[in-house]
Structures are given as structure tokens and as C-alpha cells.
Amino acid sequence: MNDDRNRSWPGQEPDAPRRAQSGPWPGEDPGPAWPGEEAPRRPQRNTPPRGNPRGGGGAPEWPSGDEGGPQWPGEEPPRRPQRPRGQQGMPPRRAVPPPGQRPQQQGPPASPPEGFRQPRGGRPVPPPGREPDLITHHAHNGTDDFGRDPYDDGYEDAAFNEFADDVEPQDELDENGKKVLTPAQKKKRRWKIVRRVAYACVGLFFVVPAIAFVITYFLVDVPTPESIKSLQNQPITYYDAGGQVMGRELPPGGDRQLLKPGEVPDVVKHAVYSAEDATFETNSGFDVTGILRAVWNQVSGGQGGGSTISQQYIKQATQNDAPTLTRKWTELAKSFKMNNQQSKEEIITSYLNIVYFGRGANGIQAASKAYFNKDAKDLNASEASLLAGLIQGPGKSENQAYAQKRWTYVMDQMVANKWLRADERATAQYPTPIAKNANKEENSGKMTYQLQQRIKDELAAKGYDESKLFSTGAKIYTTIDPAAQAAAEQAAQEGMKGQTDENLLNALVAVNPKNGGVLAYYGGPELVKDANGKDQIGQDRANQARNPGSSVKAFDLTAFLKMGKGLGETFDGSNNRVLGGRTVRNAGDSASCGKDCTVAKAMEISANTVFYDMVLNVTKPSRVAEAAKDAGVKVAPDGKSVLYTDDNNISLGGGATAVTPEDMAAAYASFASGGTYHEQHFVAKLTNKQDEVEFDENNIKTNPAFSDDAAKSQQIAGNVTEALIPVIDHSKLKCPTGHECAGKTGTQQYTPKDDDPAAYKDRNAQTWMVGYTPSVSAAVWVGGDGNKPLHDPKNKPIFGATIAGPTWQNFMNLYLKGKPAEKFDKVAPIGKDVNDVTTTPTKPPETPTTTTPPSTTETPPSTESSETDTETTTPRTRPTRPGPGETPTFPLGNNQGGGGGGVAAPPGAGPG
């Protein structure tokens, strides 16, 4: 301490005075401990305790340890010994003995007494029990000055501590080499980790999202009802081939009427709030509790979302319902921004102008008309609650149980939110909507529903579905020729006049051979009566696949010609031939042409035995199917026609083979075009509302139909046409004046049932006439919906030449009247020329016989038909229908039709 009254002088042992009184310590040299004779006293400070800290002359001196004696031996107080330059560390301190002990004398070290310990720096420390009589020890007042420097002025201690700090204490390590922590240190470390995790969570879940939300807020735009209307509410306009408007289709809900703020009654708003967002008037675009509730529902398997009306408006406006975080994030930002930019009245009005309510109604005004045939302003609480409840499930609008459940919920919520009095709720009745489509606006124009759907089907296959057409305000320029369409409808209707069979149906399709465009399309009446006498949309018979009967023989011949065979080749055209284990018969005596019947003659009279033999033994069914597809018959998945390649019934258009009238017209168009295939199509050009072209007829597929060599394909088509020209006259039909034409009839037999009258065994179920000129190819189908025994007004069977043939002829005359005359191009014959073959028809027997396999039953002899085509019919026994690909082993039935013939086939699928 700084009390120097008993401190040693320089050159003197610090405790010399005490030793003088008590004597030296054991083994200690009594000589002085300092270099001089006398131990110098501690110099007095120049600065007194009080007054000027830098004291000088006249300043009071420090109190002296020895009163009256000098403070230092010399005139000036000695300076503190300086540490030699370059010496590291501090010089060793002199040891201060413990209380009751004297310091060790200078000189050679003696053995330390028992209990002595050697301190750092080489100075001994007395053992306990020996205490020097130093006031600086202060043992009497409880302080301990061990280890302090003799010059205890405070400066040297600071210097020593500065160097002492450089020495790191050794940490205690565990068995793994890690520092052993005290419980306090462990607790401190745990809290340190907790704090850091908390900081990271705050930054991750609050700071970063907040910054991202602000950025998103300024980047997004809120869609307006007007902009949505411009995208969703644009009619589709249909044009005919002459550019005249043929029809106009309004989007679902009609021409939407946008209500203005203030025009939506409170009762409607309150009903919607109750159903969708009870906090709408107070939330800022999103409801935190609603979002948490939605999260809980997702986790717990419950139902219900957390979207506010503002968020639903954004979703409806953008038509984006993807279950992604990105969509939900931008939706929140947009809804929040909308609430900052618009009033609540504007937001709810915008929402109710675009939300979908079912029944094709977008917006509250359209929904009011669709369900109650009244304006939105006239809705009462019960009606408004029904509409509001349907917002969540518009597709269930006709589900009575669902609609009533939602109505009950909304009404109860209105009471809970004090928007409806309890007594009004108690007396409220569930409202009864009007019948669906009771006030539906009809499309303008004369385009039939069936034609409209075929056009839209084609566009959908190209990637232009209905929603895209409405969103762009599509303008569809079709290939429909208004003159041809009018002629088709007229001919189809006139062909059915006077018919008494209520099962008779018909269809007519005409195709332009020069480009594949559909000129006319009639799939039957647009409206028909259901079982209850109510109107309903009629089926599209032109797009339904039927057995084509003998009209498929044109593809038999095509496959034959592709093999290099010619019209002069001969086959046995006798009746009742056994081929492939079955008996094939012709349609009476007039359809037989003897043992050496040319292919040309067989086509003219439709000899079944010749074409069945040709396909079975020469071309095989697969080549016939290939020829049909090359010509334009579309099978699944692109079309609805069916062509079985392992069933020889394809040769006569029976079995599982079925083709649509549209495909038949398109396939025969490939013959009319001289062997060039143009893909059939309804749309010549598609544009948007701004007349920007999406595509046109330049995209239509065109290629040689029957060979990679265009000349070869033309030659094949020309030979087919040459074989089909005589069929027109043989079927008692005539070509339009000045025009060459060619074609083929076809008849499919009715498959009788066990309880049918005997006369039904002669009936037919499907009839055809397919023919063409160089400018138009048309297919007419007359038949029943499935396997029906059809008859004419005289209760006689119908054939291809009795109703379908005259209908085709009438259409061709109506459409081509006044048009320039046309003729087919002549081509060289393929293979054996028919003109080089001389045949002698064999006189048919007076009573035809039937040759059947031993396991079959003989059929009764044929009787002559009373029909104008003079063909005969032969009743047949009812066979058993085989499965697809199976070979039937049953007697063959008769083949009938204008120039038609056939082979016994599975019931309902036999040719005719």
C-alpha cells in the first residue's frame, strides 16, 4: 500500500527494521538485503494528497513514515530502477513473507523450512504461521497484500497486469478434447443459441416476407371488370364460304350486363358476405384468422378455405386456380392493393359482375335471369341466399339436396350476422328456380346445332377450345356453301316425305373434292321429341358410324388395283358359293354373272361372291382397310369409323366394319379429285376479333391418296371411277344434266329376332348411296337407330336405291343446277383391260339352290322382290354373332340394295 512509514529504504531489506528487533529468520543472513549499507526509505511523492496534483515549490509534502527524519538519503528522491532495454517481462518480484514470518536473507539459498513453497519468479513465500510485522500486510484489517510490489504506487501493478494478460490459463478438457463448461457457462450458451434461432426466425418469417410483399405489391396490377369482360364476353361469329354471317354464338350467360356500384341491393351483398366472407367490410383484403383456419382445415382434413371476396375476385379475374404458393402470394398482394385503391362497394360490385353461378350465368344479373327470370335488384333474401350459396358449387346447381343445404347455411349465417331477423328466417321458404334454359337466348342465323358442334370439335382438335374462342372473339370462316347446305336440307326432308316407318332416319354430307372442305352437313333434325313429348336436341346421325354395306366395295377394288390387277380380271360370280367355310350369296339372280365375271361387271351388279372371293384370296382384309384410310376414312382416335383388318366381312361392309356418312363422302371425294387426298375440314380460316389470322386452308393436309406417285394414284382413282359410272344407271338413278357422275349403293340387312314375324327376315336396317361428280362428293344414309326392321309405305323392305338413292340424286340436281358441265378425266387401264375380255353370262337357274355347310340349315328358295331395282331377296336363318376377330360358322344371309349384294354375317353387322 502507499503507507510508507515502515517501508524499506533503497539498498535495505524491506523488513530490516523488524528483523533488527526480532532477529533474522531461521537460516537467514542478517546482512542488509539492499546494495547499500542502509535501506533507503521510500521516496515521498511530489504530489500531496490534496491541492495541485503536479505539486511544486510551496506544496505540502506527503506524510512521512518516520516523523522528523528525511524521506530519502539524498537531496533528490531516487528514480525507480529501469528495466534493461530489450528485456522481456518484468524482473522477479521479491517475496513478501506471510504474516508472522521474516523474509529469507540474501546469499546462498538454504533449504526452505517445511511448508515453504516456491512462487513464480524464484522468491520464496514463507509458510503459514509466520507473519512479518509489516503494516502493509494489513492482516489486522482483513486485507492481503501477498505478491504486491515493494514499490506499491499502482503504476507497476498496471504494467505487470498488462503483461500477465498475455498468459492464457489452461482450460480443463473432457475425454473428447472439448472444453468442460460450468453449469453457468452451459446455461449461457443455451440462451445464446435460443436468441440466435429467434433472430433467424424473425428474419425468415417476418422481415423477408414483408420485404417481398412490398416488392410484389408494386409489381402487380388489379384487373378491372371491364378488362375481364373484354376477355371473356366476346361472341363467336360463324361465316359461310361466301363470307356471309351464318351464325353467332353468345358466351355462357349471354351478353353480360355489368352492374355499377350502388346497383347491387344490400340483401344480395349480405347474402354473399354470409356465404363467402363475413368480415369483408372490415378486412384489408385478406383475413389472417381465415387463413389460419384454412391451414387447420387442410391439416385436420376439414373443409373450407381462407380466401376473402377480394382474393376470390382476383382468382376469378385471372382464371388462375393453380394450387401453388406463387399464385396465392400474388393473389394476396393484389387483393391488398385493390382494397387500398377501391372502396368496398366497388369491390363487391366487381366481384358480383364476374362470379359464376352455374347454368352458364356469369354475374349476378345473368344469374337472376337464369334462375328467377328477374333483375338482380328485385331479388329477395331467400332468392339471394340460394344464388350466394351456389357460388362454391355452381356445377351442382341442379342438385336439389346440395342447393337446399347451401341455402339453409346462408340464411342461418345472415341471422347470425344480424342481416336478417329471426322471425323472417323462420317464415322464409326455399325458392323454386325456373326450369333450366327456359329463357335461353337462341343463336342467330340458320346454322344447326349439329353443324356448330362439328366445327367446334375440329377447332378443339387443333387446340382452340370453346373458352379460347370466346376469349378472342373468334371469327370462324367455314367451308359451308350456303347453296349446298340449303340443297342438302331440302333433299333430306323431301326424301322422307310420305314415309310411314317412324324408325327411319337420314343424314347427308357433301364434300368439295378440290380441297376437302365440307360443303353441306345435315345430321338430322335439330330438335326432336323425347318420350314425354318435350323438345330435345337431336342426335348427329352424320357423325355416327354404320355398316356401309356394298358401298365399301369401292375400297375392295382400290386395294385390288394397287396390286396391279385390272378391271378385266375374272372371278366366279355364281350365286351361293362356299368361300372360307361359309356360303356367300348374291342378291338374287340379277346379281349373278356366271363363272367368268369381270371385276367391272361384278361392280356394276354388285356381285357379292366376286368381291368376297377377291378380298379373301387376293387382297386380304388389311389392304381394304388401308385403301379406305388412304381415301379419307378416319378411324379412332382421330375419327369414329371402324375397319377390322382380320374380318373378311369388311369386303361387303358387314361384321364390325362401320363408317360415318362424313367419312364416306370424304373418301369418295378422293376418287372424284383424281386420286388426291385433301383432309376433310369445316374451317377454312380462323381469326380473332382484330382479324389476325390463326390458321387457314394452307394448313390442310394434301397428298396423293393411293400411291406416293401422283400419276399412279390418279390412275387408280380413274379406274375406280370407270367401274362406278355404270352403277348409277343400274340403280335406276340419273346424273345431273351435263355432269358425269359415279357412285355405289349399299344395304345392310336386319338381324331378325326369335319372336319377329316371318316378313321381318327380308327387312334391311341400313341403306346408302355414295356418289360424286368432279366438283362434289355426297353420301346419303337412310336407316334406323341400330338394328331396326325398316319398311317403305307399302310395308316392303327398303334398299339403297329406294330412298337414299333418290335423295342423293335430288341433292345433286339442286346443287349443280346451272353450274358448268363437267366430265371425268380419262386414264389408262391398270392390269387386264376389261375391253379385251369377252364373257358369256350364265343363265341363272329358274329355281336357285342354296349350298350350305353340313352343319347349317338350308334357307327357303328366294322370291322376287317387287322393288323397282328388280333385285331378289332370300330369307336366311339367324346366325350367332361372333366376337371381334372371330370367324363365324353360320349360313350366310342375302345381300340386298340398289346394285347391292352381300354375305351372311353376324346379326346386325351383315352386309347388304
Features:
single chain; 912 residues; alpha+beta; disordered N terminus; disordered C terminus
Indicate the radius of gyration in whole angstroms.
Answer: 56 Å
**Cα distance spanning the termini:** 136 Å
Quaternary structure annotation: single chain
The secondary structure category is alpha+beta
**Uncertain segments:** 1-9, 16-22, 33-37, 51-70, 134-140, 142-165, 302-306, 840-912
Q: State the helical fraction.
A: 25-40%
Number of strands: 22
Could you characterize what this model shows?
The structure is a single chain. The chain has 912 residues and is an alpha+beta fold. 32% of the residues lie in helices and 10% in strands. Strands 3-2-1-4-14-15 form a six-stranded mixed sheet, with helices on one face. A five-stranded antiparallel sheet has the order 6-5-19-18-17. A three-stranded antiparallel sheet has the order 10-11-22, covered by helices on one side. The longest helix is centred in the N-terminal third of the chain and has 37 residues, at 183-219. It is elongated and about 120 Å long.
